[in-house]
TrEMBL record:
Role, per record: Catalyzes the specific phosphorylation of the 3-hydroxyl group of shikimic acid using ATP as a cosubstrate.
Gene3D superfamilies per UniProt: P-loop containing nucleotide triphosphate hydrolases
Catalytic activity: shikimate + ATP = 3-phosphoshikimate + ADP + H(+)
Name of protein: Shikimate kinase
Localization (cell): Cytoplasm
Subunit structure: Monomer.
Entry cofactors: Mg(2+)
Domain of life: Bacteria
The EC number(s) this enzyme carries: 2.7.1.71
Organism in which the protein naturally occurs: Pseudonocardia alni subsp. carboxydivorans
Cofactor annotation remark: Binds 1 Mg(2+) ion per subunit.
Amino acid sequence: MTAPAPTPAPDAEGRPWVVLVGPPGSGKSTVGSLLAQRLGLDFADTDAAIVARIGKPIAEMFVQEGEAAFRALEREVVAEELRAGHGVLALGGGSVLAAETRALLAGHRVVALEVDLADGMRRTGMSTARPLLAGVNPRATFRALLAERAPLYAEVATVAVTTVRRSPNQVVAAVLAELGHGPSVLPEASPDAADPFDRPTPRQDSTLPAPGFGSPQDGAGTERAEAR
């Protein structure tokens, strides 16, 4: 008989039970929060920790101090949060650019959330809170960002879970199944579902921008101001 999976919890060294990585629009904050609720764990987001520390939006730091200053702070905050005893931790989209961060993730349970160009564009809505997507051609910028970072997410990931055409609750179920804590059959999803987290991201029937993951109109699934 197969032994039951260990109860999800941070380890004795304060490492989270699971770390979520992925590009902007992959739903790390939304999925991470739902996953933590499902498991009865604490949830933390490194972008939120950075905002709390600097006392202003990350986009303002980009403008005022530059990307290099932000990345240095991000490396510091990620290192701290990876030992802070959180149950579920979401990292900023560009955190894997740092070799130091990728090295720190070795030995962690890391889930890479994948998104395609269409879903990612609609979920981000080209928000000004995402400075690297604020340009003349955000679609081309986002496409290049996905291509550049894909091998880095793959490098640090224990497992990868697609979010394309899935609702937040479906993604949570898929993550749990991949980690041995749930069935492989995903729950139903519909654009008209009463629960916003049962709604997949609109596609051809929705014009850009429509930010959010699950319910753009009520903002229930919108990610934190995560860039990058």
